[in-house]
Amino acid sequence: MKRFIFSLSLIGAVLLSGCTAIPKKAPDIDKSFCAEAEITVGKESFSGKLSRISSNSWELELSEPFALGGAVITFGEEGTKITLGDFTAEADITDGTASALKIIASAFEESAKDGVTFENNAFSGTSPFGTYTVSVSDNGIPENISIPEKNISVSLSEWTETEPEEIIVE
Asked: How many whole angstroms separate alpha carbon 160 and alpha carbon 36?
């Protein structure tokens, strides 16, 4: 009986110690998706539908602020364009919302690569625009993207995985 109690105590001690914790495996976020996004760039706030069409191909359809509602920013390897109604133009992405999309996309693309640090449900590392963190839910769904050096944060909701497509910037 003493051996049984001792064995139970030993098993309990091992199970309750932090030594037996198995590191959580990083989820695969290298997927096409669309999600509702609340984006903060400095003191400015934007909202809309953020889509990762395929690797390095992104689209942001703005709904807020009202003056930009309906504007669609498309970013891919071929360039960036902004569409509002019947008007379409190549975008200079050196500043403004189009630039923020490029920075957000860069952080996400870096986090989707193999070998990126993953701790506490977050990917972290450095993109060409600075350090970033991409936080995921317990189910591995991206929820937040933060690029502190650029004062950019993104909150994602209503995340839906989609089929990859190609964006062609005309």
From this structure: 9
In the structure, what pLDDT confidence band is assigned to residue 33 with cuts at 50, 70 and 90?
Answer: very high
Domain range for 100 is 24-161
Q: CATH number for the domain including 88? A: 2.50.20.10
Each residue of 147-159: b (16+ CB within 10 Å) or e?
Answer: beebebbbbbeeb
CB-CB contact of 54 with 34 (8 Å): no
What are residue 153's DSSP bridge partners? Answer: 40, 146
125 versus 93: the higher-pLDDT residue is: 125
Q: In the prediction, which pLDDT does 92 show?
A: 62
The answer to whether the CB of 104 falls within 8 A of the CB of 145 is: yes
For 100, list phi and psi in degrees, rounded to 5: -60, -40
Residue range 17-46: average pLDDT?
A: 82
